[in-house]
Amino acid sequence: MKIALINASPKCKESASGALIADFLACAYEKCDCAEIKMNRSKLTDDVIDVLKECEAWVFFYPLYVDGVPGHILSCLKTLESMKKEMGEKYIYAVSNCGFYDGRQCEHSLDIIKHWSRRACHVWGGGIGIGGGGALTALLHLKPGAKPKSKIDKSLNFLLEKILEENSFEKIYANVSLPRAIYKMAAEHGWGRSLANNGKKKSDISATPEK
Ligand SMILES: Cc1cc2nc3c(=O)[nH]c(=O)nc-3n(C[C@H](O)[C@H](O)[C@H](O)COP(=O)(O)O)c2cc1C
Fold first, then answer.
1. Based on CB atoms within 10 Å of each CB, which residue in 56, 128, 152, 163 is the most buried?
2. What is the pLDDT of residue 145?
3. Does residue 118 contact residue 87 with C-beta atoms inside 8 Å?
């Protein structure tokens, strides 16, 4: 069983999707063959297409954008749909992460991948909605299963199990195990730091572009 781990965050580096792939790889170590690929632009390269062809299961790791999926993913899905004959039938899984605390926010975006998988004649394997995505890159150094990532790692282990059994589930959700108020405070601190790094003040958040 070869699994394609698709990093579909538009970020080139330090994405929460990449951190989740690293956690999944730790779970999958010596249990299966995984190929990590980037899908961060709207065009698919020949190399990506070749890897996708040879994998039996595809896992899309992506951020939640405005309760949906980032626009470039839709273009990639359209291309893949047009190639359904040459691709053959695949098991499709999705791991959506969001900036808000509750992973359930990702439900509709998981439905987008689910409906696409059926339309493109693949098998919907299941989806995970992960809340607290803003904390994930900062937690990369933690051992698998350690708090505050323990529930997320548990959900990734469950996903791996289902993929290896060639089995489906519907959707499950997991959050970073931090108190909601602490997560919010840390997120606001992060925004403040990003503003300062870009030479802006807090009041600039509500600025409107000049006409
Ligand atoms: C354009 C845009 C739209 C977003 N929309 C949402 C949203 O609707 N709900 C949410 O919880 N987070 C939203 N986020 C936050 C991202 O989902 C969050 O930062 C995620 O962890 C980024 O994952 P990545 O690092 O893998 O790209 C949005 C971020 C951007 C840039």
1. 152
2. 87
3. no
Cβ-contact 151, 177 below 8 angstroms: yes
What pLDDT sits at residue 191?
85
Please give the structure tokens belonging to residue 123.
């098998």
Q: Which residues of the chain have pLDDT under 70?
A: none
Structure token digits, residue 82? 């047009």
The secondary structure element, H or E, covering residue 153 is: helix 150-164
Domain spans of the chain, in order of start: 2-200
Kindly report the pTM of this predicted structure: 0.95
The CA distances from residue 110 to 9, 53, 114, 148, 188, in Å, are 15, 22, 6, 24, 27
What CATH architecture does domain 2-200 belong to?
3-Layer(aba) Sandwich (3.40)
pLDDT of residue 202: 85
pLDDT at 209: 83
> How far apart are the CA of 64 and the centre of ligand 1, in A?
5
C-alpha to C-alpha distances, 128 to 24, 98, 163, 166, nearest whole angstrom: 12, 11, 13, 16
Q: What's residue 211's pLDDT?
A: 78
Take residue 109 and report the two structure tokens written for it: 């975006």
By most ligand atoms within 8 Å of CB, the mutation choice from 9, 21, 66, 95 for ligand 1 is 66
Q: Which residues pair with 130 in a beta bridge?
A: 97, 174
pLDDT at 210: 84
Residue nearest to atom 3 of ligand 1 (CA): 65
